[in-house]
Specification:
Length: 173
């Protein structure tokens, strides 16, 4: 067989001049290139070729692949950090908007409470004024009754005092 025989990339052995080089594949599948080092498979994974004594090129390729993987991880970590910063910024903005909404609602509630207190105070004043007017009217009518009938008023006052005194004395015993 020739050095580039079809069996060289498909898991067979390659021979040159009738001697075997011992380059059997450890994975099966179609390769995108037919080199003796790591070979890219059609599905995107890497296949490795057993190199016998020439294993140092496989190690170098492995180091290269690990270096690329590390750089991809660093890049992914950077993107994740940017995404987290963006999310934290958006959350902070939402909290500021929410805090402003809460403050405005509390201010509206306070204003409503103050308005309700003012209305209650006004209603209370009206009630107090009405009671004061009724009390004045009652005092005026009592004064008028006393002026019209002084003797009867004196007798009523005396009788009322006597009854209250009797009740007070009977409560003490």
């Amino acid at each position: 067989m020739s050095p580039t025989s079809p069996n060289a990339g498909n898991g067979g052995t390659s021979t040159t001049g009738g001697t075997s080089m011992g380059t059997s594949n450890t994975t099966t599948g179609n390769y995108s290139s037919a080199s003796d080092s790591d070979m890219a498979m059609d599905d995107g994974t890497l296949g490795t070729a057993g190199l016998g004594t020439a294993g140092t090129s496989g190690t170098a390729s492995l180091k290269t692949n690990l270096g690329q993987a590390g750089s991809h991880l660093k890049q992914a970590a950077g993107h994740a950090g940017v995404a987290l910063k963006g999310a934290a910024s958006a959350a902070g903005d939402e909290m500021r908007v929410g805090r402003a909404n809460v403050k405005s609602e509390l201010a509206e509630s306070a204003l409503s409470g103050i308005a309700a207190a003012e209305v209650a105070t006004a209603a209370g004043r009206e009630q107090v004024d009405a009671l004061m007017d009724k009390g004045r009217d009652l005092l005026e009518s009592a004064s008028e009754l006393i002026r019209e009938r002084p003797l009867a008023s004196f007798g009523m006052a005396f009788a009322t005092g006597w009854i209250i005194a009797k009740l007070a004395r009977s409560g003490d015993k």
